[in-house]
Design brief:
Number of strands: 0
Number of helices: 5
Structural class: mainly alpha
Strand content: under 5%
Order of helices and strands: HHHHH
Helix content: 55-70%
Radius of gyration: 43 Å
């Protein structure tokens, strides 16, 4: 007898599918065994889900969950500025709000100047190196895509090879399975015949004993 190295839970290539009535009966038996709230309540043996860790994006997550619109970047400092009213030598005493307005305007002017200078540098770099960087990026993406497609083809070939080997293996033992199934049915039939004969002999023995006792 060969040593069995592996087992199969199912033989889809040679087994026949169950009927719709049998499947409905099996589903009904499973539904009777399951509690009514199995889809909502975890099994008591499962560990409790750990509480979520605080995230630096917690405020943004809460905003999205509340359905609030995103907070836009304040671009007022980059817009055209208007100079406040003219100051006087005594404005720091008589009109401190005017000095504060000038301070805010100067800060916004510095920010706008820095923004425009940085933007000009970026546009210059983009004009000088942007085309080559874009082409190189596209070439890298194409290489990555080719590698992924190659891996996909190899995986499909391996899957087909495994499926083909599985089908050949199951079809190859179909005759043996049919023989074992037929032998099992004959054994069950002979067992039933033996049990029936034993029951008939027991009843005959009891009948003869009653006749002898009478």
């Amino acid at each position: 007898m060969p040593l069995i190295q592996e087992t199969y839970d199912s033989l889809p290539c040679i087994d026949l599918d169950i009927s719709a009535q049998a499947r409905a009966e099996v589903d009904a038996l499973l539904a009777d065994e399951l509690p009514g709230d199995y889809a909502r309540i975890l099994h008591p043996l499962l560990p409790a889900y750990p509480p979520p860790k605080p995230s630096r994006n917690g405020a943004e997550i809460e905003r999205v969950a509340a359905g609030q619109p995103p907070t836009a970047i304040d671009v007022s400092r980059y817009e055209s500025l208007e100079a406040p009213a003219t100051t006087s030598p005594t404005s720091d005493v008589t009109d401190p709000e005017l000095l504060e307005a000038w301070k805010t305007t100067l800060q916004n002017a510095y920010a706008s100047s820095t923004h425009l200078h940085t933007r000009l540098q970026n546009l210059s770099l983009l004009d000088q190196f942007g085309k080559n960087a874009w082409l190189i990026g596209n070439a890298q993406l194409e290489n990555i895509l080719k590698e992924i497609e190659k891996e996909l083809v190899e995986t499909k070939e391996q899957l087909e090879e495994v499926s083909r080997a599985r089908q050949l293996s199951q079809v190859g033992i179909k005759g043996e399975m049919d023989g074992l199934d037929e032998g099992w049915k004959k054994s069950i039939g002979r067992l039933v015949e033996v049990q029936l004969a034993a029951e008939q002999a027991r009843r005959g023995s009891l009948a003869r004993r009653r006749e002898g006792a009478a």
